[in-house]
Amino acid sequence: MTALNASIFDIPRPPRIRRLPISAKGFPVPWFVAWVDGVPDFRVADQGKMVQAVKRKLCWVCGQQLGVHNAFVIGPMCAITRVSVEPPSHLACAEYAARACPFLSKQNMCRNEVDMPEGGRSPAGIMIKRNPGVTALWVTRNYKLVRVDDGVLFQIGEPEEVYWYAEGRTATRTEVMASISSGLPLFEEKAMKDGPEAMEELSQRFERSQSLLPAA
Fold first, then answer.
1. In the prediction, which pLDDT does 130 show?
2. Cross-strand partners of 169
3. Could you tell me if residue 45 is left (phi over 0), alpha (psi between -120 and 50 degrees) or otherwise beta?
4. In a domain, 200, yes or no
5. Domain total for the chain?
6. Structure pTM?
7. Nearest Cα to 70, choosing from 51, 84, 50, 52?
């Protein structure tokens, strides 16, 4: 049996996470990850799992049945737009991902797109190809699917709780605002092209998001 990676050894694993296979590098393999030639490719989501998660209401991380609450693992900009590119998870699974996933917990970790397998594709919607450094766990009872030109997005409902993480720990308001400030220009640029109404809507969404940030 493969041992856990030393970097995550001390992070408690929820029971559902304990059922997941362990990669050669010692990381639990999320249910959604695509396997290529018998090896998990953490960069690629299995599109068949996407369909199952939506139709059967399964956790994106562990693959087991969800309950009433849905926890979306999103970046700060998605907290403004209230859109996710991935289905929800159990809160415990989402918390573990925020603490243990190298990309989510290490600010300098970059996406590796070298030798992407055939069929691998970018998520739908606008994607900022950077590590935001901050992750939000958006807990809601409701969401709906929205079809766009390049796929499907998840429009997430009003949150009951929002938890913020950075570097595997609770994030500060300063860290969250710094991440938003670095990502907002791309959305402002698109809104400017779409016209005054789009700019006003973005401004309103930004203002609405401020009450969900960590306390100063």
1. 61
2. 166
3. beta
4. yes
5. 1
6. 0.87
7. 84
